[in-house]
């Protein structure tokens, strides 16, 4: 084999560390961003929270209060860092000639400069601290969620009132701790006993199972009624036994309802009155009354104890109507905007320093500066995309879902000069507060269906129309998917029956036979 040297010129694409961080921060949700900031604050000594109200005009989201007009968008603020890979990647051969911002080289390694940039601590805004009451004197939803008693605490408090010995009290407490959030005991008593005693000690296993059986009866006697059930049928049965019917007719309805709970629940779900009447030995009239009684029961006893705070959505963008002009104002939610700055004392201490330790600290300082700038770019991009969405969906903010127009990611990407993947990242797990509720930014995008006029109707608007049709239907003669399809055609929208069924299922609307009133 002959050895030799050869020279080959090639090019390849690479992402700088700061660009990778920009992309990662852009796709994070508000909760994940907060966790990322907390982690960076713990790791980087040069980064700190700004407790003073900064001047947003100097370094920040100076477009936060911009109206939703295309011509108001400043093209100079376009963030090219979020464009497609071919544009945002850099040639590694030219990495030594990276541009600078505010005299600081765009590199983690720094440029031996320790001068503080004038805008290191001058960006972002912040809202006043949260209070327990809002302007209307009503309790804040988050505070209410935090103060809400959990199901386990509620049951433990009731258990304290029972006169039990230590063994039964411990068994009851163990079962309470093994309930799921709906109030059901998913594991069998045998499996719970085996988890404590093992499978070899049969005597102790039987003793534990007996204790758990006694504790289960005690648990099922507590409030809410139906707690501690192993399945839905048992939960409904417990609630029916707890009823106190007045009169023979009401007593008969409860007996028939108990008989229905002993039948396969899929028969009850399908409301097959004739089969249920034959199985329970009752008349169809009694079956209908029993089904109505079962429908008033609570299938999830622990529902009202579920932690509400987990379902509280904090919007990233707030859209409000400005006066009587009919225009809408798009602004970032100050509650989700972090206030960060570079620690002045630590940064100034690096001036004039030399050596390897100095280079390492300067690199950390550079990381802090880039982290602040990348967060600013994240909110800038969210605001720009939100403005573009609000401009294109003006009718939605005036009339609701029925006025939604079809829109795809490509339209916003072309308007803002960004890549579709960037728009996808921005609209995922980012929420907008509107006069009609809070929606994820992806909600405003949807495909179109052809109309007789040659235009397209948004799939979101079609779903809203289907929902409206079902809400106004006759409960005794609910609309079928074919009928809904024909009604849409009367509105000039071509929508096949299978498409109607898909939209109906997406709206969690039951089929015709389940919506029919007995």
Strand order of the largest sheet: 7-6-9-10
Name the beta content range. Answer: 5-15%
The average pLDDT is 78
Structural domains: how many:
4
Q: How many β-strand stretches?
A: 12
- The structure class reads alpha+beta
Number of helices: 22
The global form is: extended
Main beta sheet strand tally, sense and closure: 4 strands, mixed
Report on the architecture of this protein:
It is built from 22 helices and 12 strands. With 518 residues, the protein is α+β, with helices and mostly antiparallel strands. It has 4 domains: 229 residues, no CATH class; 70 residues, no CATH class; 74 residues; 69 residues, Homeodomain-like (Arc Repressor Mutant, subunit A, Orthogonal Bundle). Strands 7-6-9-10 form a 4-stranded mixed sheet, covered by helices on one side. A two-stranded antiparallel sheet has the order 1-3. Strands 2-8 form a two-stranded antiparallel sheet. The N and C termini lie far apart (90 Å).
Index terms:
single chain; 518 residues; alpha+beta; two-stranded antiparallel sheet; 12 strands
Topology readout:
Blueprint: E1 13-14, H1 17-27, H2 30-43, E2 47-49, H3 85-88, E3 90-91, E4 100-101, E5 104-105, H4 141-147, H5 151-159, H6 166-177, H7 189-197, H8 202-220, H9 232-242, H10 248-261, H11 265-270, H12 273-280, H13 284-295, E6 317-321, E7 328-332, E8 340-342, H14 344-349, H15 356-392, H16 394-399, H17 409-416, H18 420-427, E9 431-434, E10 437-440, E11 448-450, E12 456-458, H19 459-471, H20 481-490, H21 497-506, H22 512-515
Parallel strand pairs: 6-9
Antiparallel strand pairs: 1-3, 2-8, 4-5, 6-7, 9-10, 11-12
Helix pairs in contact: 1-15, 5-6, 6-8, 7-8, 9-10, 10-13, 12-13, 17-18, 20-21
